C-alpha cells in the first residue's frame, strides 16, 4: 500500500557550499556515510534470562575522518582552488594556520518545487585530492571540480537524524 502522505526524494537537486564559497550545483557525491561502533563487534555477549541472547549495542559514532568525494559544477571564481592552496600551506615551514583554513560546509537537497528538504552540515572541513574534469574544445560538457572533504562533525537538518 502506498502512503500518499510520504514524499519520496526523487529528481532532487543538490547544492554544496562552504564558508566563503557560494553554492555550487552538485553532480555527484561519493562515500557519503557514517557508522557506529558496536560494543561486542557483532558477536553474542552472553545469554540472558530466560535464555535470550544478549548482543552489543552501538556505543559511539566513528564518523571522524570519513571523507566524502564531491563533484560540483565549476564556477568563474576559483574559491575552491584557493581554499585547497591555503590548506596546502599547512605542510610548509611557514607555520601552522590549520584552524584558520577549516570551514563549515553544507550539502543541501532541494525537492522538485525548490524547497530545502534536507541539509547536511559538516564542521571543520578541509579539502584534499582536487582535480578538474576533462575538457574538449568541441564538447558542450560542463566543467567540473572534484575534491575530497575531510570533516569532524556532521549535523543533519530537516530530517530526524540529528547530530552525528
TrEMBL record:
It comes from the Bacteria. InterPro entries: CHP02241, Phage_T4_Gp19. Signal peptide: none annotated. GO terms for molecular function: structural molecule activity. It holds the Pfam family Phage_T4_gp19. PANTHER family: CONSERVED HYPOTHETICAL PHAGE TAIL PROTEIN. This is Phage tail protein.
Amino acid at each position: 500500500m502506498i502512503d500518499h502522505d510520504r514524499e519520496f526524494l526523487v529528481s532532487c537537486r543538490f547544492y554544496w557550499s562552504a564558508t566563503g564559497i557560494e553554492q555550487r550545483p552538485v553532480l555527484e557525491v561519493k562515500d557519503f556515510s557514517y557508522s557506529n561502533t558496536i560494543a561486542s563487534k557483532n558477536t553474542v555477549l552472553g545469554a540472558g534470562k530466560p535464555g535470550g541472547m544478549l548482543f552489543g549495542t552501538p556505543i559511539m559514532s566513528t564518523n571522524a575522518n570519513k571523507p566524502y568525494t564531491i563533484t560540483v559544477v565549476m564556477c568563474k571564481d576559483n574559491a575552491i582552488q584557493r581554499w585547497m592552496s591555503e590548506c596546502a600551506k599547512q605542510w610548509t615551514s611557514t607555520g601552522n594556520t590549520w584552524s584558520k583554513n577549516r570551514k563549515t560546509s553544507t550539502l543541501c537537497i532541494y525537492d522538485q518545487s525548490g524547497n530545502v528538504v534536507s541539509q547536511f552540515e559538516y564542521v571543520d572541513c578541509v579539502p584534499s585530492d582536487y582535480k578538474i574534469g576533462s575538457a574538449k574544445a568541441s564538447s558542450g560538457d560542463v566543467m567540473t571540480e572534484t575534491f575530497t572533504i575531510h570533516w569532524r562533525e556532521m549535523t543533519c537538518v530537516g530530517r530526524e537524524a540529528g547530530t552525528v
